[in-house]
Task: inverse folding
């Protein structure tokens, strides 16, 4: 197990995070949720950057506060609103990385910077949002880490750059089957094609954990009018939302409804639908 | 540790080359046009540049950078260790630069001074720089840059007020005590006083270092 969070509770004045989740070896786990749902707080707690009120966290077998330098050199991290100081240039970062990470691959880092159009001789504070985002990921993937914790790594990237970064993550996983990634995003299409399993966090609570294949192949959206909704078996309905024509119902057994209610429209589930229904609908 | 030192040296090189050049220029210029002692030039450069060390923490903090920095292979204690080592290195470097500028001024003025006396009297400035650093560093770690600035002013104000108060109070101290204190310092001699200052500066650094480690251990990012 790369990361295990059990009953983590972190209380702020107007927000309580309550999180249980795990990231298995060899897996890409997604954490999805709207802004302010608790994604970044979960990352910070897992990395030992904040204290927490209760619960247990083990990151690569150790409590976050017990992580030594050699443990930290085996993880790669990108954080949503933080990176190397803006008063440094990429060419300043290279010797810092070489000194900190025994396995930092300088030539690969430099060639990736060129490939992704990250300038080496410019202050980071002058970078565009996209350039900063790319730099963060390049730093995380070029020192042979066993585990990547990526908080919103694709924010601010255009479609092409996003695809490039996602491919980089796929390559990273292919290089060693024991590697893992925990990735958060509010762009669900990024996670759909990448993750093995997914956690949905809403108002500080994990409200869904599912394998990505199950989510895409078995979840569905039932569109029923008032009469149809009345007759509907609610056994496998996860969430319901009132619409102008009747009800939208999220199910994790779409085949069951397709077979038993041939006159009702059952659409294939997409991650976006699941998120909207689970966070915006009435959960049954 | 090495990585952090490289980072700070690079940060400082990027930001303080102009500052250093300006400091030397101002110091030497004041030395040439006015009659301030060359020793003032050494003090000015050493202390000013040493105070700048705490501001590398601001560069770390810029744009929530602290958060990311702490995910790198460093620990909170190592971060504090590095800041103090960096500070001591910079104060020594600044002192050397100040000494070159001050000595140049001394020679230009054709002043007559023994080398030992000149170097010895200027060693005091490193001690003062270390005391300043001992105050600014934990405050800077504890508070954000805006609050730390006020905290610095308050602490330095309190120290000055205490010094002033002490100088006033000394008038009321019985004469035999002040006399024996005077004798004690006279007996120490110049070298003794420099040594005593060094002991005080190192003690201040040690206390400051322990405080900084505690502050860092409790810090929430």
Result:
């Amino acid at each position: 197990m790369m990361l295990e969070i059990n009953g983590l509770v972190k209380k702020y004045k107007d927000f309580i995070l309550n999180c249980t989740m795990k990231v298995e070896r060899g897996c890409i786990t997604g954490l999805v949720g709207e802004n302010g749902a608790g994604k970044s707080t979960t990352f910070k707690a897992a990395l030992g950057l904040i204290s927490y009120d209760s619960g247990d966290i083990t990151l690569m077998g150790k409590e976050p506060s017990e992580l030594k330098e050699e443990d930290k050199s085996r993880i790669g991290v990108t954080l949503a609103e933080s990176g190397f100081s803006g008063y440094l240039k990429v060419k300043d970062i290279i010797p810092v990385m070489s000194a900190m990470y025994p396995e930092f691959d300088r030539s690969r880092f430099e060639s990736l910077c060129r490939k992704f159009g990250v300038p080496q001789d410019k202050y980071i504070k002058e970078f565009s949002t996209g350039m900063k985002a790319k730099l963060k990921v390049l730093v995380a993937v070029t020192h042979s880490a066993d585990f990547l914790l990526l908080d919103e790594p694709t924010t601010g990237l255009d479609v092409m750059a996003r695809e490039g970064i996602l491919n980089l993550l796929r390559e990273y996983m292919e290089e060693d089957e024991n590697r893992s990634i925990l990735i958060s995003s509010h762009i669900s299409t990024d996670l759909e094609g990448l993750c093995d399993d997914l956690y949905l966090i809403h108002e500080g609570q994990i409200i869904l954990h599912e394998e990505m294949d199950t989510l895409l192949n078995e979840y569905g959206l039932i569109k029923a009018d008032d009469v149809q909704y009345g007759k509907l078996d609610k056994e496998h309905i996860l969430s319901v939302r009132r619409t102008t024509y009747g009800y939208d119902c999220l199910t994790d057994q779409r085949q069951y409804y397709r077979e038993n209610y041939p006159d009702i429209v059952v659409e294939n589930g997409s991650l976006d639908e699941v998120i909207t229904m689970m966070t915006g609908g009435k959960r049954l | 540790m090495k990585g952090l030192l490289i980072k700070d040296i690079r940060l400082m090189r990027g930001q303080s080359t102009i500052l250093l050049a300006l400091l030397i220029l101002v110091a030497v210029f004041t030395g040439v046009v006015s009659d301030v002692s060359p020793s003032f030039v050494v003090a000015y450069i050493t202390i000013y540049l040493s105070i700048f060390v705490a501001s590398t923490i601001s560069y770390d903090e810029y744009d929530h950078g602290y958060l990311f920095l702490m995910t790198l292979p460093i620990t909170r204690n190592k971060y504090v260790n590095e800041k103090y080592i960096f500070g001591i290195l910079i104060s020594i470097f600044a002192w050397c630069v100040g000494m070159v500028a001050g000595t140049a001024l001394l020679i230009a003025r054709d002043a007559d001074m023994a080398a030992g006396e000149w170097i010895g009297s200027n060693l005091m400035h490193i001690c003062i720089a270390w005391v300043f650093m001992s105050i600014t560093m934990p405050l800077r770690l504890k508070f954000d840059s805006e609050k730390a600035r006020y905290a610095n002013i308050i602490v330095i104000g309190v120290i000055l007020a205490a010094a002033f108060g002490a100088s006033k109070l000394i008038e009321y101290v019985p004469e035999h005590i002040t006399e024996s204190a005077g004798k004690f310092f006279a007996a120490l001699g110049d070298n003794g006083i420099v040594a005593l200052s060094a002991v005080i500066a190192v003690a201040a650094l040690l206390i400051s270092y322990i405080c900084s480690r505690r502050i860092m251990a409790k810090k929430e990012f």
Observations:
- The first helix of chain B runs from residue 2 to 33.
